[in-house]
Every structure is written in C-alpha cells, then in structure tokens.
C-alpha cells in the first residue's frame, strides 16, 4: 500500500498535466479555426468589393453603348430633313464614339475576367459584351435582344459575389 501512496499523487498529477495540455491544444485549435474563418470572410468581402467595382464599370459602359447605338438608329429618321453633310458628320462622330465605347466594353470585360472566381461569370460577361459589340455595329436593332445576356450576366455576377445564395430571396441554395 505504500507504493500507491507515492504513485497515486504522481499519476494524478500526470493525468492533470495531460488533461491541461489537451485542453490547451483544443483551445488553440478553436482559436486557429476562428482566425481562419475571419480571414476567409475578409477575403470574400474584398473580392466582392473588387468585383462590384468591375461589374458597375462594365454596366456603366454597357448603358452608354446602348444609349448611343439606339439613339443613333432613332435619329436616322429625323436626319432626312437635315443636310447630307451635317448628317454624315454626326454619323461619323457617333461611330467614332461607339468605337471608343466598344473598346471600353472589352476592357471592362477583361477586368471582370481577371476579378471573377467563376467560369459562368466570365462566359456571361463575354456573351453580353459580344452582343453589345453587335449592337454598336448595327447588327442588333432591338434592345430586347440584349436583355437575355444582361440577365444571365447579372445572375452570374450575383452568384460569383455570393456563392450559394439565391438572387431572389437571399436564402441558401439547397440541393433537391
């Protein structure tokens, strides 16, 4: 019985040290996990901010392309009364401006291509930019033909900024 009297406290002390060490390691694990999650949240917020800027720039240029392209077509009928030289000068200026805007569309598309994390956004941006370029060249005369690519682009942008959330109601997407 004498050995238990000396070994008992030593074993209990050793068990206490082991329990304390495992508790400390578990606490460090929890802190590390929380720090990792915090870094992920910060990175996601930075990505959303960068992508939001690129998307807004792209949409701004797209709106200008639509405005110039469709007002050019609407103004053509009113130009019949104007002189030929004046009409040609205005048409040339509009085409030059459209060329600059199309270049800006492709630059904005490239900016989104670099900032995007998902292929659906890259593809939707390209398709929308291509349709805008067609509109600028006069190949598309109906604004409604741009709405499909525009909606696809907006859905893809939302999906890239907030993966796993539905655009309509903000609830997480659940597989069926």
Please give a structural write-up.
The chain has helices at residues 2-78, 84-115, 119-136, 144-161. The longest helix has 77 residues, at 2-78. Helix 1 packs antiparallel against helix 2 (84-115), helix 1 (2-78) runs parallel beside helix 3 and helix 3 (119-136) packs antiparallel against helix 4 (144-161). With 176 residues, it is mostly helical.
- What gap, in angstroms, lies between the N and C termini? 66 Å
Major β-sheet annotation: none
Give unreliable regions as ranges. Answer: none
**What gross morphology would you assign?**
rod-shaped
Using only C-alpha atoms, the radius of gyration works out to 31 Å
Average pLDDT rating:
82
Give the SSE string: HHHH
* SS strand fraction: under 5%
Q: In total, how many beta strands?
A: 0
Instruction: Give the helix proportion (percent range).
Output: over 70%
Structural class estimated from helices and strands: mainly alpha
Please give the count of helices.
4
Architecture blueprint of SSEs:
Blueprint: H1 2-78, H2 84-115, H3 119-136, H4 144-161
Helix pairs in contact: 1-2, 1-3, 2-3, 3-4
Short description:
By secondary structure, this protein is mainly alpha-helical. The protein has helices at residues 2-78, 84-115, 119-136, 144-161. The mean pLDDT is 82.
Distinctive features:
176 residues, mainly alpha, 4 helices, 82% helix, rod-shaped
């Amino acid at each position: 019985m004498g050995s238990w009297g000396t070994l008992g406290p030593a074993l209990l002390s050793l068990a206490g040290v082991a329990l304390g060490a495992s508790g400390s390691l578990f606490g460090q694990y929890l802190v590390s996990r929380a720090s990792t999650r915090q870094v992920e949240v910060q990175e996601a917020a930075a990505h959303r901010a960068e992508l939001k800027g690129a998307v807004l720039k792209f949409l701004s240029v797209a709106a200008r392309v639509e405005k110039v392209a469709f007002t050019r077509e609407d103004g053509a009928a009113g130009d019949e009364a104007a002189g030929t030289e004046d009409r040609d000068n205005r048409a040339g200026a509009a085409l030059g401006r459209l060329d600059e805007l199309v270049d800006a569309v492709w630059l904005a598309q490239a900016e989104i291509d670099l900032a995007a994390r998902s292929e659906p956004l890259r593809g939707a941006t390209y398709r929308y930019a291509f349709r805008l370029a067609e509109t600028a060249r006069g190949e598309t005369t109906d604004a409604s033909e741009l709405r499909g690519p525009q909606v696809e682009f907006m859905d893809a942008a939302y999906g890239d900024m907030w993966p796993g959330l539905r655009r309509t109601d903000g609830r997480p997407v659940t597989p069926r």
